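Revision sheet: structure tokens.
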Amino acid sequence: MQNNVSRSAYGTLTLVLLAALFLSVNLFSNIVFRSAQVDLTQARLFTLSKGTENVLAKIDEPITLKFFYSESLATDFPQVRSYANRVRDLLEEIRDRSHGKIVLEVVDPEPFSEQEDTAMSLGLKGARTTEGEVIYFGLVGTNLVDGIEAIPYFTDERQQYLEYDVTRLIQNLSRPKKPVLGIVTNIPMDTGAGGLVAAMRGQSQPFAIYQELQNRFEINFIEQKFVKVPDNVDVLMIAHPKPLDEQTLYAIDQFVMRGGRVLAFVDPHSEVSLTAGPNGQPVQGYTEASDLPQLFRSWGIDFEPKRIIGDRDLAMRVQTNLDARRQTSDYVLWLGVPKANFDHNDIVTSSIDQINMGTVGYLKQARDATTKFTSLFWSSKDAEAYDVDYVKQGHTPDELLGNFKPTGENYVIAARVSGPLKSAFAAAPPPSAEDEMKRSDAMEKPLDYVGQTKADANIIVVADSDILDDRFWVQSSGYGSDRTLEPIADNAKFILSAIDNLMGSDDLISLRARERADRPFAVVDNLRREAERKFLAEQERLKAKITETEQRLVALQTTGAAEAQSGQAADPHEQEEVAKFRAELLQSRKALRDVQRNLRRDIDRLATEIRFVNVALMPILVAIVALVIAILRHRRRKARAVKGA
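Predicted:
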């Protein structure tokens, strides 16, 4: 009896000790390993970037981050809760890595509370629920010198830019002023297609890329005729300028000679410049093409100002209205450049996923170039070069595909030029007579001549300006300050990373160069393209045959109707011909439907295979494994029974 009691007490004590150990281990791990995490995603989506760590290391004075999140109201919105947890985890990770320089406060602004009034006063925007309540989900940062930065609302569309947005906010608060970006352009980036007229009416809609640039830099628009780049400009962005006079080209040349960095966009056919405004016309003074031939010769670049790339492999899908039906087709003049066509050794393009652009030109290294020419991204080999005049004739996507003749050459769309440079000028050009008449003592004087760079130049050139156009890289909803932007391509990511790199700041580049969480259906796209190439010619032949048959049938029926009205007897031969053409028309239409079904045959088969793998294969494999284990266990039991007998 005593032995049984002692065993029972021993068992109870063991359970108590195990429970205490379990609680102790959990308490210890919560305290010691609270910030520990293992990121098993392929793109390392939940690992703090080196750029963020560098920004945190450069903070001199404390920064306070206030995370406003209506947690009590978001219980019925799982998507918001999930994203909020991710935002909070990131903010806590940033706080822990800042060594006390970041102070994090989490605020739940309940309805009609002082916290809600504070959120509204700081510029945060709430999302209204169907019940009329407002959910706040934003961030406000402040420093010790009255600096304030805010993310009004963490929209789901910008999840891939989460770390960048937060780190940019911190960096803006950690430095006294933004770097200055000088812009020389003939594109109405700050007013949109309506230009100054729309701006004066309060109807302007700035380009999305301009809003991104404003968030990151101090913008200094420079008139397209000047004798000197302002001293405070850190990087000069030349975006599809009108033809520049010699004095202006000399000013840009000397800016580069003195160590200035340039990002240039030129274009043989700028669709964004031709975009119609509210009055149905492009902005007054628009230019269709742009070029910098004198500077390009100095930089070691050849640019074809009258040639446009067509690429069958990179063609974007566009909506067409043919035969009274709405369908999509590959448009070889609009390119979606994928990740495989970027230089992964250059920090600006190392992890860009895709850039969308239209009517693109191309660059080459000049034969006598002394600079280093590095391709940043390029076309596929399934490409050809068109003359601008041919493109302007307005051929349909199917016509361009039908006449496509690839050259097998990769055309360079964007390139970096580096190394020592010599000036494009032998001496400072004399001022024009017009400038002499206007000159006064208060006017800027041309820079003294410098013949070559003291250090290596750093210039990035893109043979397209439509990369700046909203319709190629962003979907927007709302208007004005309430507009929400959803990136569908990495155009802004590339431009901002290029400017940061030219400014010598690599801290934010790794943040913008993150891979997306979602992946394109590359296999499906390849199957679709291959099927379309295979059946396109047959489809066009059948369409032409159907049209011809319909025309002949209408002609015969018209003739028969006229004969009937005149009292003539119906011609048996004509009736036979009508019946024949009707049968031929039905057969051709059936054949066309078969061809169009074949366009999706491989894709449908792939979808069936994937569905089988996801739904049926795993249960089947588990059942097989369970059956094998059951058989093995049965055999072992049987063997033990035989051995025991």
